[in-house]
Amino acid sequence: MPCNKLRAEFLKNLDESLLSPLPPFRRLSHGQIREILDLAHPLLVAQGHEVFCEGMSAERFYLLLDGHIRVERINAAGDRVVSLHIPPGQLFGIAAALGRNTYPATSVAATECMTLWWPLSLFDGFAARYDGFADEVHRTVGHRFEEMNSRVMELATQQVEQRVASALLRLTRQNGRQTDTGIEIAFPITRRIISEMTGSTLHTVSRLLSTWERGDILQSHRKHINVLDPDRLEALSRPDAPL
Fold first, then answer.
1. I need a surface site. Which of 16, 43, 119, 154 has the fewest CB within 10 A?
2. Are 45 and 51 in contact (CB under 8 A)?
3. Structural domain spans, the chain
4. How far apart (Å, rounded) are the C-alpha atoms in residues 218 and 183?
């Protein structure tokens, strides 16, 4: 079947009610959501593949329907830094909201991701025409700036043990799923990625996770982390935590 027919079939089967609870669409009628969907393009991204790269021309903006996106940047020393993770239901690649015509960071599929994308040329029209769309974009940008500012403060003021504990707590709160024994981070995450999130070495992260596993604070197996005791991890993240 030609690609345009596959696209039309996919969007036709995507019910408006599935999108209406999502923040960008919450204040819209089903008819308005249908208008937006009719202009969308579906994109399936395999785990580990990039959606777009830092510095690329920002020609599209995206909605994450399913999966998790990891946002990465390269610092002045050439090291990769993981800025944040984006859960399902959020817009991303919204460079236009920052007044940019290039993407400020790289987006990587932390799991297989189903996204919708629209040409950037539609962004201003969506913001003007659809009630709540612009508000949600501004709210999303604000939350992400707030999170990144918190990360900067952690790097400046916390010891490495506290930073790693804070990062794991943040991931369980934003991307966690309840299990019989605790809260599991909902996507595969390596010790190297944790080190890139926290400005620490791979050796240090491995040592800490091994220590916390022996203490029954968490379990780590095949790139999956299950936090067994969030209260103890919370205590380890505090400035007065014993090191």
1. 119
2. yes
3. 3-154, 159-237
4. 9
Domain 3-154 has CATH 2.70.50.80: no
pTM for the whole structure: 0.85
Strands of 80-86's sheet in order across: 50-52, 106-109, 69-74, 80-86
Sign of the alpha-carbon dihedral angle for 52, 53, 57, 63: positive
Residue that has been written with the tokens 């974009």 in this structure: 137
**How is 49-110 classified by DSSP, letter by letter?**
-EEE-TTSB--EEEEEEES-EEEEEE-TTS-EEEEEEE-TT-EE--GGGGT-SB-SSEEEES
By C-alpha distance, which of 169, 22, 140, 136 is closest to 71? Answer: 140
Quickly tell me which residue has 């707030």 as its tokens.
Answer: 146
pLDDT digits 0-9 by tens, 55-113: 999 999 999 999 999 999 888 777 888 888 999 999 999 998 888 899 999 999 999 99
CATH class of segment(s) 159-237: mainly beta
Asked if the domains 3-154 and 159-237 are classified in one and the same CATH topology, the answer is yes
**Residue-wise pLDDT tens digits, 132-164:** 898 888 888 888 888 888 888 888 888 999 999
CB 143 within 8 A of CB 225: no
